[in-house]
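Recall that a protein's primary structure is simply its ordered list of amino acids. Everything else, from secondary elements to tertiary packing, is in principle encoded there. The following example makes that idea concrete.
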Amino acid sequence: MSKKSVPPASPGNQPQPDSRRQRLREEQQRVQQERRVRTILMSVAGVAVLATVIWAVFALVNSVPSAPSAGSVDESTVVIGTADAKVRVDVFQDFMCPYCGQFERANGADLKSLVDAGTVKLVIHPMSFLDQQSGTARYSTRAANALFTVYKAEPDKALAFNAALYENQPEEGTPGLSDDQLKALATGVGVSQSVADTFTAMANEPAVVQATQSAFAAGVSSTPTVKINGEKFAGNTSQAGALKAAVEAAAK
């Protein structure tokens, strides 16, 4: 039986070298294009992440109020006296601080007379860093909030109320005065009952927080800290007459 001959493959049945090279080039171009797309997408994603981080940092920075320097007059201070007084006295205090009580009892009357004479502009910074000394009662904050409330509603009663709070100062480690007792002290120096009744709303707690943060940011590390025209008083804050003499010397 004769064998059938198999005809040779026609040129069209076999891939040509040029065709293979063309497909290889197309495949390489496709891979390169995919890589470029991935690179672009990754770059865009990186920019988006960076933008998100920058935005978050910007938002965080701007959400924190800038602390005014100690000695500045703002909504976190109680200012008593005329603006053109010769001497400015700043007092950084906490209503639970026993040394602040000693300071007030030794110098309160002198400061009032100097304010009344137009010699002193008194700037009180009510702080609350001793809140822990009254447990969960937060006496420092509640008392300071009450002072701010009186000052903003009936400023002519603020100095008398400040003195009354120290005259009736509780001991450290106790809950401090109750809300009703704070109201009674306020009305006792002439504050209207309607104003005293708003103490419990704690509307001025942010001012107390700001006063405390501002003082610490400015380097105040203990209470009472007293400044005369921006300079820290180096004398004995518990010695009657010492502060008055320093103020009178500054007024000359």
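The longest helix spans residues 17-63. The radius of gyration is 37 Å.
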